[in-house]
C-alpha cells in the first residue's frame, strides 16, 4: 500500500515522487525503482482526528475566524504495480482443436 | 483546500439532485442551515433539492421558503429509524401526498417506541401507500446485502413493498476505506443487488455538511449528541465527503460505484436518480402550503355581525352613531378578508376562559378594533382612545392579524385544556386518521454562545472549571461574537485565550452559531385551524404532554395557521386573588372591569409614586417618570407606558413631552390640521396611530394606506420611497414646504420609536385596575401580590410596603395560616403606625390609602422546604390544641416543625407573649416528643402509639428566649422575609445619631442638599441610558419606602464592588427635584451599613466607657 499526500500542507513536505497528471497516479518511484500502475484495486479518502493535533503547530495563528483545522485529509489508492521494464506482456494461446497451449512474449 | 482528484473529470453539463440531505434541523447532526444548503445547491446549478432531516421536519418550511427564493424545486422526505434504532430509511412525499408524510411522521411520534415499525405501517398504510421508501446504507436491507444474505435482503424488500407506493435502493459512497457502509464496495453491492432484482437504484451523498471543511463541526455535534468527548470511536465520519458535492463530483462518484459494480460508467445511476427526483418535485405553494390559510370552520359567519352588533348597546347618544358606523367599516374589512372565523374563534377562547372564571385581557394592536371590544376580547374602549382598526388589520395587508390574550398565569393551562378539548383531538389516544384543529407550537432552540462553548469544551475535554468560567461570563450573545465578547471581559484575561486549544474551541463555538439544538414548546402560542391540522404539519407530543407542531411560530404564519398567544400574566392572578379576598372579607363582589377610569384616589396613589406592586409602573425608573409626569387620566397612563421604553428614552422623546406637560415650554404647533392628532401628547409623536393619522391627513390617503406607509418607513429604502411620495402629495394638498420639512423630520426620527397606542392601552388597563385595588382595597390587593408575586421586588419589600399603609403583618399561625396570604381584619386598632408619606408640604394634597385595621396573615407555603402535601395535611387536621398534638397529627416533618416554632407559628397557641414559656422551651419540647416517638417506634409503629402515650410535659426550662434580632434572622432564613420587624430597626439609634433621612421625608429636601440615607438593597439595575454610559440604580428600602439612588461612573470605580456584594447600605447623596413629586438622589459616597454601625458603636464605647 502506497500513499501520496495530495493535500498540500502549509509547508510542502518532501515525499514520494508520484506521476499523476490528471490526479490519478500512473507511475511512481519506490526504493529507487520506477513503478508502473497497472490497476487501481480501490481508492478511498480519510480525514479526522484533528483534535489530537491541536498543539502540533500546524494550526495557523491568524485571526480566529480563519483557523485551519488540521483534519489530516488523505486520499489513498490501493494499486497493483510493477517495476518499469520488469513487466512483460505475454500472449497465451490455446489451440482448441489439439488442446495445446503456447506462450509468447509480446510488446505492450 | 486541495482540489479533489476527480474535479478534472467531465466538463459536460451534468445535472444531479441531492435526495438525501440532513440540515441543522437534524438536531446535533447536520452542520448547516437549510437556507445555506439551498444557496449552495443553487450555486452548483441544481434545479431541485431534497431535505430529508432525521426524525422530523422542523426545517421544512424554512427550506421551502429558501427554495422558493432561490428558484429550486423542493423535495421533502424524512430519515427515520426503522424496526430498530440502528437501522434507518428515508421516506419521500410525492406531489399531492405531503399530508400523508406528515401523518406518518405524526404516527411515529405518537407511538411509544418513536420508530417506524410494521405495526405503525399497518395502522397508517393509507398514508404510507402514497409515499416512496428508500433503503440506504444504514438500512436493514443494506446490512443484509453487505453480509451477502441476499435472500434476507429481498424478503425485507418484499415485506415493505405492499405499504409504499414505490421503493428504491440508495447507493452512497463516501469513499470510506474498507467494505462497511458508505464505502464504494458497499455502495456497489447495493447497486448490484438492485440490478439483479430489477429494483430502481439512485445515487445520494447522504449529506450532513455544506463544505468539506465542516468536518470538525460534525465531530463536535456527534460528541455533543452522544455526550462523550471527541474520540475516533464516537465520531461518525472517517473523512469529509458528506458535503453537498457538485454535479461533477457526484458524477465521478457515480462512475466509481458503477464500475465497481461492473458497469461501464455511472450514467444509468445518474439518470435514474434524476428520474426519481423529477417524480418528487413539490410545489412550495400547493404542496407545502406557503401563503395558504386554514382558519377554523365556523358554522355561521353572520354570527360575527350578530354578536358585535349586540355589543353596541355599550354606547349611547352620539357615540352610538359613530360606533355603529365604525362597526360597519370594520365588518366590511373583516368580511372582505374572510377573517370572520378568526374573530369568532378568539372570542370563543376568551368566553371559554371567562366561563371558567379566569380573567382575560387582550394584548397588542387587537385592542384597536371595535369588534374586539364588542366581542369582549379587549377591555379597552377604542373610539374615545383614538385607537385604529387599521393598525391591527386591513384589506391592504392581507395577513392574519395577531391577537395575544393575557390570562391568569396560574390557570393558563386550564385554558389550554379547554381549548384542546374543543378544537383538538377528540380522544387522548391518537389515531392516524384523527381530526384535530389545535396544537401547541414549537420553538427552535439554537446554539448561542453559552451552549456552544459548553458543548465544544466538553467535546475537546477542556477542564470543566475553565469552560464553566468562560460560559458563565458569556452574556446571552450570538456564538459568532464570542471572540469579541471575550476581549471585553476583563475577568477572563487570566485565562490564556491564546492557547491553540482555546482558540480552536472559540472558532468551533462560533461555527455552531445559530444551529438548532432542539425543539421545545413555545411558551404561550397555540394554533387553531380547521379540523385538518394534521395534514398541514407533523406533530409530536412534547415534554409537557401536549400535542405540538414541529413548526415554529414563523412557520405556522407562513402556511396560514391562526396562532394565538395565550400569555400567563401573574398580575391577572394577583387581581383575581384580591377580588376573592374582598369577597371573603366583605362579601362584596367588585366588578373590576367596570370601575370608572377617572377615580381620583387611584390617580392620587399613582402620583404619590408609591406604586410598588402596581402593574408596569413599579420599577424605579417608572416611579421616577410618574413623579415627573404626574398622570391624571387613563390616557396619561397610556402615554406613560409608551414613553417608558428604550426607544423613547434613547431618542429623548420624554424631555420635550414633559416640558410641554409641565408648561416649562409652550407647545409649538406645527399646523392646525395636526392639532387634534398631537394634542394629547404635547405635540410629540408618541404613538403609531399618530404617525398613521399624520400621513393620512397630509398625504390625502386612507388610514389603511397610512399604516402601509408607516410600515414601509421601517426600512431605510422604504423611508426614501415614502419621502418621495409624501412631499408631492402634501404639496398637492397645499401644505407649505416648511411645514412638510418639519413634519417629515418628526415622522422620520420618531416613526421607528413610536409605540402602538392600542398596545399601550391594553397594558394600561391592568395598570389602572391594580392601582385602583391598591388605593381602595390595599390589604386584599397586597395579599394577592404576595401570593402570586407578579412584580420585580422581593416579598419582604412588599410586606414593608404593607406596613407603611398601616397593615399589621400577622405571623404564620399554626391554626390560622392558610396556604397563601390572607387579608384579615384586626380588632386592635392602629397598633401599627401609619408611615406612608405626609405629602401636604409638596403642593397639592393627595389622598392616600389608609389600611389600619387590616392585617395580612403569612401563608404556610413560604416556609422553606415545606411541600404541598404537608400544607394540605396541616390545614385539614386543624385545630391543634398544642405542639404535641401538632406533632402527632399534622404529618409535618421535624425540620418543618422546628421552622414553624422559630417563625412564631406556635406563639399564639402557647401564649408565648405572656412570658411563662418561650421559643427555646418549645424547641426542647419538640426534641422530647421525637425521643418519645422513636422509643415507641421500637415496639409498635407510627403515631397511634404516640396518641396513647402521655406526651412529656411542656415546662419552662429557664433558658432565655431568642432575642428579637435572632428571631428576625430566623424569619429571613426560613421565609425570606423579615416578618416581625424591619431589618433596619436594629440600626435605628445609629441612624438617628448620624442624621440619616427616612425615604418618606426626602421629598421635603431641597435640590442640592446633601443627605444620608440607609436601607436594604432591593434592586440593582443598569438600564439603557441615552449617553451610553453605564449608570447603576440602587434601590434601598428603609422601612418607610424606597430610595432610588443613582451611581454615575465617577463613584462606580471606588464603590462598584461594594454595590454588588453587600446588602445593607449607608449612602451619602445629593438631592435633585425633578417634578411635582419627582426626586433623584445622586450618590457621592456609600458604605456597608453594618460596618459603619460597628465603627460607631466601638467609638461610642470608647467615648462613654
Helix and strand topology:
The complex is a heterodimer of chains A (108) and B (1105).
Chain A: E1 2-4, E2 18-19, E3 27-30, E4 33-46, E5 74-83, E6 89-94, E7 101-106
Antiparallel strand pairs in A: 1-5, 2-3, 3-4, 4-5, 6-7
Chain B: H1 34-43, E1 48-51, H2 60-70, E2 73-82, E3 84-92, H3 98-110, H4 118-123, H5 125-128, E4 132-135, H6 140-146, H7 150-160, E5 166-171, H8 184-196, E6 201-203, H9 215-226, H10 247-260, H11 267-280, H12 303-311, H13 317-337, H14 340-355, E7 360-363, H15 370-374, E8 404-408, H16 412-423, E9 438-446, H17 449-460, H18 464-473, H19 482-487, H20 500-512, E10 516-528, H21 533-536, E11 539-541, E12 547-552, H22 553-558, E13 562-569, H23 570-586, H24 600-607, H25 620-629, H26 634-643, H27 646-650, H28 654-661, H29 675-678, H30 688-699, H31 703-712, H32 716-732, H33 737-750, H34 757-776, H35 778-788, H36 795-804, E14 808-810, E15 822-825, E16 854-857, H37 868-876, H38 883-889, H39 894-902, H40 919-939, H41 942-948, H42 964-975, H43 988-994, E17 1010-1021, E18 1032-1037, E19 1042-1047, H44 1049-1061, E20 1064-1073, E21 1079-1088, H45 1089-1104
Parallel strand pairs in B: 1-2, 4-5, 5-6, 8-13, 9-12, 14-16, 19-21
Antiparallel strand pairs in B: 2-3, 3-4, 7-8, 9-10, 10-13, 11-12, 15-16, 17-18, 17-20, 18-19, 20-21
Amino acid at each position: 500500500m502506497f500513499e501520496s499526500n495530495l493535500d498540500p500542507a502549509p509547508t510542502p513536505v518532501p515525499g514520494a515522487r508520484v506521476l499523476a497528471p490528471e490526479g490519478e497516479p500512473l507511475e511512481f518511484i519506490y526504493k529507487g525503482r520506477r513503478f508502473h500502475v497497472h490497476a487501481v484495486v480501490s481508492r478511498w479518502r480519510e480525514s479526522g482526528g484533528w483534535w489530537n493535533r491541536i498543539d502540533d503547530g500546524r494550526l495557523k495563528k491568524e485571526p480566529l475566524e480563519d483557523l485551519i483545522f488540521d483534519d489530516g485529509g488523505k486520499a489513498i489508492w490501493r494499486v497493483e504495480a510493477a517495476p518499469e521494464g520488469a513487466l512483460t506482456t505475454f500472449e497465451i494461446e490455446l489451440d482448441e482443436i489439439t488442446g495445446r497451449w503456447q506462450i509468447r512474449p509480446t510488446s505492450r | 483546500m486541495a482540489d479533489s482528484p476527480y474535479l478534472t473529470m467531465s466538463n459536460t453539463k451534468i445535472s444531479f439532485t441531492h435526495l438525501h440531505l440532513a440540515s441543522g434541523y437534524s438536531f446535533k447532526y447536520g452542520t448547516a442551515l437549510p437556507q445555506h444548503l439551498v444557496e449552495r445547491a443553487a450555486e452548483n446549478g441544481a434545479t431541485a433539492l431534497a431535505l430529508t432531516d432525521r426524525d422530523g421536519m422542523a426545517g421544512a418550511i424554512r427550506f421551502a421558503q429558501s427554495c422558493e427564493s432561490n428558484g429550486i424545486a423542493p423535495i421533502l422526505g424524512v430519515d427515520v429509524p426503522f424496526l430498530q434504532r440502528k437501522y434507518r430509511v428515508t421516506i419521500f412525499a410525492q406531489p399531492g401526498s405531503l399530508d400523508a408524510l406528515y401523518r406518518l411522521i405524526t404516527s411515529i411520534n405518537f407511538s411509544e417506541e418513536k420508530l417506524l415499525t410494521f405495526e405503525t405501517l399497518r395502522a397508517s398504510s393509507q398514508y404510507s401507500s402514497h409515499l416512496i421508501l428508500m433503503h440506504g446504507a444504514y438500512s436493514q436491507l443494506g446490512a443484509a446485502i453487505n453480509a451477502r444474505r441476499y435472500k434476507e435482503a429481498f424478503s425485507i424488500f418484499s415485506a415493505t413493498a405492499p405499504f409504499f407506493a414505490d421503493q428504491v435502493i440508495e447507493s452512497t459512497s463516501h469513499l470510506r476505506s474498507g467494505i462497511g457502509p458508505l464505502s464504494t464496495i458497499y455502495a456497489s453491492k447495493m447497486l448490484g443487488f438492485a440490478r439483479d432484482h430489477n429494483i430502481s437504484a439512485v445515487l445520494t451523498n447522504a449529506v450532513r455538511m455544506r463544505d468539506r471543511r465542516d468536518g470538525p463541526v460534525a465531530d463536535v455535534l456527534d460528541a455533543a449528541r452522544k455526550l462523550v468527548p471527541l474520540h475516533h470511536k464516537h465520531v461518525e465520519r472517517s473523512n469529509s465527503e458528506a458535503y453537498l458535492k457538485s454535479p461533477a463530483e457526484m458524477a465521478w462518484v457515480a462512475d466509481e460505484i458503477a464500475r465497481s459494480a461492473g458497469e461501464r460508467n455511472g450514467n444509468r445511476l445518474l439518470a435514474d436518480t434524476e428520474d426519481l427526483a423529477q417524480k418528487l418535485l413539490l410545489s412550495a405553494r400547493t404542496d407545502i402550503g406557503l401563503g395558504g390559510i386554514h382558519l377554523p370552520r365556523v358554522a355561521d359567519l353572520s354570527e360575527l355581525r350578530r354578536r358585535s352588533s349586540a355589543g353596541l348597546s355599550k354606547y349611547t347618544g352620539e357615540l352610538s352613531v359613530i360606533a355603529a358606523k365604525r362597526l360597519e367599516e370594520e365588518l366590511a374589512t373583516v368580511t372582505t378578508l374572510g377573517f370572520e372565523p378568526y374573530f369568532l374563534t378568539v372570542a370563543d377562547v376568551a368566553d371559554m376562559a371567562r366561563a371558567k372564571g379566569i380573567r382575560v385581557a387582550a394584548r397588542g394592536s387587537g385592542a384597536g378594533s371595535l369588534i374586539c371590544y364588542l366581542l369582549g376580547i379587549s377591555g379597552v374602549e377604542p373610539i374615545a382612545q383614538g385607537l385604529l382598526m387599521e393598525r391591527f388589520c386591513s384589506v391592504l395587508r392581507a395577513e392574519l392579524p395577531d391577537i395575544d390574550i393575557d390570562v391568569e398565569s396560574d390557570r393558563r393551562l386550564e385554558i389550554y385544556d379547554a381549548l384542546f378539548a374543543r378544537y383538538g383531538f377528540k380522544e387522548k389516544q391518537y389515531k392516524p386518521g384523527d381530526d384535530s384543529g389545535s396544537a401547541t407550537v414549537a420553538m427552535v432552540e439554537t446554539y448561542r454562545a453559552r451552549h456552544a462553548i459548553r458543548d465544544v469544551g466538553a467535546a475537546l475535554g477542556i477542564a470543566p472549571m475553565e469552560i464553566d468560567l468562560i460560559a458563565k461570563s458569556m452574556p446571552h450573545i450570538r456564538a459568532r461574537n464570542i471572540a469579541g465578547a471575550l476581549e471585553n471581559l476583563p475577568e477572563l484575561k487570566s485565562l490564556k485565550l491564546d492557547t491553540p486549544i482555546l482558540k480552536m474551541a472559540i472558532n468551533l463555538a462560533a461555527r455552531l452559531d445559530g444551529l438548532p439544538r432542539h425543539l421545545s414548546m413555545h411558551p404561550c402560542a397555540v394554533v387553531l385551524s380547521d379540523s385538518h391540522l394534521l395534514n398541514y404539519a407533523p406533530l409530536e407530543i412534547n415534554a409537557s404532554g401536549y400535542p405540538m407542531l414541529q413548526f415554529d411560530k414563523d412557520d405556522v404564519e407562513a402556511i396560514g395557521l391562526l396562532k394565538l398567544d395565550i400569555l400567563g400574566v401573574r398580575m391577572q392572578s394577583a387581581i383575581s386573588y384580591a377580588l376573592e379576598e374582598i369577597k371573603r372579607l366583605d362579601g362584596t363582589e367588585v366588578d373590576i372591569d367596570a370601575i370608572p377610569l377617572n377615580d381620583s384616589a387611584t390617580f392620587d396613589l399613582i402620583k404619590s409614586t408609591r406604586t410598588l406592586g402596581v402593574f408596569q409602573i413599579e420599577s424605579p425608573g417608572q416611579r421616577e417618570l410618574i413623579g415627573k409626569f404626574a398622570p391624571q387620566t387613563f390616557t396619561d397612563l397610556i402615554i406613560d407606558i409608551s414613553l417608558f421604553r428604550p426607544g423613547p428614552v434613547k431618542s429623548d422623546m420624554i424631555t420635550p413631552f414633559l416640558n410641554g406637560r409641565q408648561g416649562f415650554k409652550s407647545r409649538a404647533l406645527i399646523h392646525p390640521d395636526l392639532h387634534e392628532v398631537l394634542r394629547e401628547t404635547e405635540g410629540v409623536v408618541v404613538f403609531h396611530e399618530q404617525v398613521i393619522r399624520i400621513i393620512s391627513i397630509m398625504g390625502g390617503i386612507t388610514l389603511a394606506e397610512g399604516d402601509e406607509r408607516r410600515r414601509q418607513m421601517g426600512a431605510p429604502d422604504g423611508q426614501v420611497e415614502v419621502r418621495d411620495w409624501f412631499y408631492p402629495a402634501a404639496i398637492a394638498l397645499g401644505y407649505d414646504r416648511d411645514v412638510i420639512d418639519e413634519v417629515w423630520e418628526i415622522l422620520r426620527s420618531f416613526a421607528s420609536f413610536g409605540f402602538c397606542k392600542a398596545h399601550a392601552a391594553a397594558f394600561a388597563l391592568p395598570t389602572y385596575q391594580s392601582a385602583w385595588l391598591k388605593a381602595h382595597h390595599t390589604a386584599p390587593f397586597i395579599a394577592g401580590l404576595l401570593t402570586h408575586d407578579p412584580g420585580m421586588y422581593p416579598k419582604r419589600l412588599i410586606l414593608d410596603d404593607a406596613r407603611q399603609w398601616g397593615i399589621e403583618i400577622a405571623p404564620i399561625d399554626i391554626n390560622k395560616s392558610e396556604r397563601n396570604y390572607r387579608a384579615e381584619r384586626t380588632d386592635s386598632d392602629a397598633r401599627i403606625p401609619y408611615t406612608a408619606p405626609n405629602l401636604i408640604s409638596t403642593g397639592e394634597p393627595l389622598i392616600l390609602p389608609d389600611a389600619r385595621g387590616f392585617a395580612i396573615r403569612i401563608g404556610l407555603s413560604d416556609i422553606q422546604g415545606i411541600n404541598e402535601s404537608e400544607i394540605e395535611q396541616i390545614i385539614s387536621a386543624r385545630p391543634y390544641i398544642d405542639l404535641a398534638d401538632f406533632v402527632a397529627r399534622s404529618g409535618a416533618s421535624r425540620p418543618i416543625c422546628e421552622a414553624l416554632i422559630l417563625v412564631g407559628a406556635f406563639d399564639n397557641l402557647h401564649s408565648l407573649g405572656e412570658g411563662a414559656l418561650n421559643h427555646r422551651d418549645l424547641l426542647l419540647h419538640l426534641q422530647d416528643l421525637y425521643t418519645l416517638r422513636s422509643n415507641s417506634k421500637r415496639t409498635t409503629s407510627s403515631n397511634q402509639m404516640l396518641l396513647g402515650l402521655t406526651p412529656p410535659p411542656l415546662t419552662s426550662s429557664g433558658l432565655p428566649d431568642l432575642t428579637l434580632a435572632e428571631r428576625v434572622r430566623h424569619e429571613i432564613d426560613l421565609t425570606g422575609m423579615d416578618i416581625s420587624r424591619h431589618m433596619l430597626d436594629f440600626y435605628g439609634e445609629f441612624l438617628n445619631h448620624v442624621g440619616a433621612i427616612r425615604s418618606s421625608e426626602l421629598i421635603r429636601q431641597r435640590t442640592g442638599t446633601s443627605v444620608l440615607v440607609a436601607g436594604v438593597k432591593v434592586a440593582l439595575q443598569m438600564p439603557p441610558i441615552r449617553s451610553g454610559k453605564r449608570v447603576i440604580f440602587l434601590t434601598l428600602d428603609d422601612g418607610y419606602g424606597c430610595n432610588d439612588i443613582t451611581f454615575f461612573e465617577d463613584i462606580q470605580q471606588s464603590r462598584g464592588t461594594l454595590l454588588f456584594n453587600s446588602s445593607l447600605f449607608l449612602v451619602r447623596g445629593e438631592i435633585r427635584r425633578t417634578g411635582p413629586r419627582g426626586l433623584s438622589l445622586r450618590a457621592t459616597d456609600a458604605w456597608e451599613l453594618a460596618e459603619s454601625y460597628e465603627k460607631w458603636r466601638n467609638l461610642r464605647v470608647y467615648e462613654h466607657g
